[in-house]
Amino acid sequence: MEMNATYTSFVAIGDSFTEGMSDGQPDGSYRGWADLLAARLASRTPGFRYANLAVRGKLIGQIVDEQVDRAAGMNADVVTLVGGLNDTLRPKCDMGRVRGLLDEAVERLAPSCGRLVLMRSPGRNGPVMERFRPRMEELFTHIDMLAARHGALVVDLYGAPVLGDQRLWDVDRLHLTAEGHRRVAEAVWQTLGLAAEEDWRAPLPPAAPPGWSSRRAADLRFAREHLVPWIGRRLTGRSSGDGRPAKRPELLPYTAPLIAQRTAPQTAAIDGETAGLS
Hints:
By secondary structure, the protein is α/β, with parallel strands linked by helices. Helix content is 40%, strand content 11%. The chain contains 10 helices and 6 strands, in the order E-H-H-E-H-E-H-H-E-H-H-E-H-H-E-H. The protein has helices spanning 16-19, 33-42, 60-72, 85-88, 95-109, 127-130, 133-150, 178-191, 212-236, 258-262, and strands at 9-14, 49-52, 78-82, 115-120, 153-156, 248-253. The longest helix is centred in the last third of the chain and has 25 residues, at 212-236.
């Protein structure tokens, strides 16, 4: 990998992780690691272009059908593909089909871009995630194989213990906080051969675990605001991304959002509210 390489365009495809949930902004929009990475790449290269086709809730089949050919046609210097994890979290998941669709996506993307970046997604620590961990690890093993076959890069977020820390996860227990997204952006930055600005794997400062009452309050809030609506969508066959357009559907010159220009960068508060079910 060429150190301090120059990249002139970036296309991100995937689901809520790449859309940027739950890195919320004051205007109600989401930022996320891909937007942070684009801003940093744009600061080095005049005329830098960026598209983000990711939409929350998308399964790998939807990503292939709705995003892959569009991204391939943009012929960007960098394309990131993160998908399949939503499939593994479904009660019924055909892992053979998931692997086949990932094969299809990579085979269509790799020849059309300068650098294809795949990821081993982070996994939050906690008993609920243990149920799905074998599927996740099967997915990540396949991603490693695809990367080796097609010359893609892999960002190993799953192998970074800090990204399993419950304090880096939002109250929905599915999405990283702003601090988590910031660390992912740094991880991709370094994987692309750019000089490290920090150690994104550095552990959080020690903190006393939340007490019983705090954990129960967090559990109740999680169930009321996130678990019950999620179950409702599963029962009715709906998705949080139904009818939602991509956040940046065209590969256009990057300009920082006005909200980002008005506000100083902030590190997400780290507290005990995101403790896992226990």
